[in-house]
Amino acid sequence: MLTLTPSTDGPRDPVPADAVLPGGPAGSDARRSGDLATKPARDLTPRPASGVVGWVARWIDGWWAVALRGPSALMSVLTITLLALATVGFFSIPAAGVGLLMLVPAIWGFWGLGRLERHVLRAFTGTDIGPPAPGTTVRWRRALGLDQPRLQAVGWGALQGLWGLLAGAIVLGLLTQAVSLVIVPFIATAAPDGAVRIWLTTVQGPVGYAAAVLVGLALLVLVPFLARGLAMVDVALGRWLLGVDPQRQLREMSQRVDTLTTTREETIDSVEAERRRIERDLHDGPQQRLVSIAMTLGLAQTQLDRDPEAARALLDEAHAASKEAITEMRQVARGIVPPILADRGLDAAVSALADRSPVPVTVNSRLHERLDPTIEAIAYFCVSESLTNIAKHAGARRATVDLGLARTLQGDRLAITVTDDGAGGAVVGAGSGLTGLKQRVASVDGDLHVHSPVGGGTTVAITLPVRGRRNA
């Protein structure tokens, strides 16, 4: 069996399969992706790198690549047939959609041939190109074959139809010519004058026969190595369009690690900024209020015997100040995690925010179940910060908050949209508070988009991954 040796131009296994990437659970996801990217599809049979024995072993294995051209040519005929059917079906769609009856089966036919190609490559080259990428498209598109894996199978079929015939013709033509040259002496015995015509050359005589045999033997030596190189093209096409491309997955892993590193740093900065904010709010608000209460109570104590009426007034003042301190403490606590969020969920907590907002806010919620506490806390913070920005900077007369679930290619997402009719002009990173929102959203692989034309109001669209609620 042919064993294709991987290219030595780059690192063979740059990331160990058991490497643990930074970033906590998300890093674990990246590590699992790394298993697919760097783990060899199957253990390649070790071959001597040099020497006559290694050369002969590679030459023998090369005949598996020669044999591959047979099923590959048959696969090409089938893919060309399906391609013709799909083309006719596509251009027949305007005819009351009749073309779908040909197009959809053709697409699924490509998908079936792609699965067969995996087994063919494994049998003849010892290479497993890996499973296809998981489809994340909605069901109706997958049923029609319009998702990425099936469309890639169509692309593979179009290329395979041409490549399989071309490579088969090259290998079969050279192999036939090689065998013809080797048996020239035997053919010459049947010729009347002992002359054999090959291409544009006539071979006759012992010297001509010997030269033809030598050329034929040289071709027999070279054909398996040429077939090995052509088989590597088949493997590359399969990995690119039907299976797992290690280099592509490695690039995705590298991007994922960079994203995790950036979001981790931003999350740490965001948490530290939040800690400083809470410390500042406590120092400037409740702490100063409590110091004032303590001083007022001290004065009331000194006046209690000499001037009871003055002491009573000071006690009343301390009592009022204590109520204000309680109110300020509640406001600080709401900036962390309000009790209503833990008790009644995101819908009720956002409605409470809207009731306290100085700008009239309309809340439209389509949430019917509780979400993960972490996602709810981040969503609450985003809405709270957005409404605060509207009250302080937008100059809006009204605002709207929409909460709901959206189905995307990445799965179900919590979609939050906060809009206002204010002055607009909000920019992420311009001190508007949107930077902190972006950091919090990115920490859980969410997305934040801001559309804020000057004079046209502001729309903040946030999507967060939906995770099941964990039991406490």
Give your account of this protein's structure.
- This protein is of the alpha+beta class.
- Helices cover 63% and strands 9% of the residues.
- A five-stranded mixed β-sheet has the order 3-4-5-7-6, with helices on one face. Strands 1-2 form a two-stranded antiparallel sheet.
- α3 (100-125) packs across α5.
- It is elongated.
Name the structural class: alpha+beta
Mean pLDDT: 79
The counted number of beta strands is 7
Q: β content, as a range?
A: 5-15%
- The helix/strand order is HHHHHHEEHHHHHEHEEHEE
Shape: elongated
**What can be said about the biggest beta sheet?**
5 strands, mixed
- Gyration radius (Cα, Å) is 37 Å
Low-confidence stretches: 1-48
- Oligomeric state: single chain
Helix content: 55-70%
The main sheet orders its strands as 3-4-5-7-6
SS summary, helix count: 13
Gap from first CA to last CA = 56 Å
Characteristic key phrases:
single chain, 472 residues, alpha+beta, five-stranded mixed β-sheet, two-stranded antiparallel ribbon, 7 strands, disordered N terminus
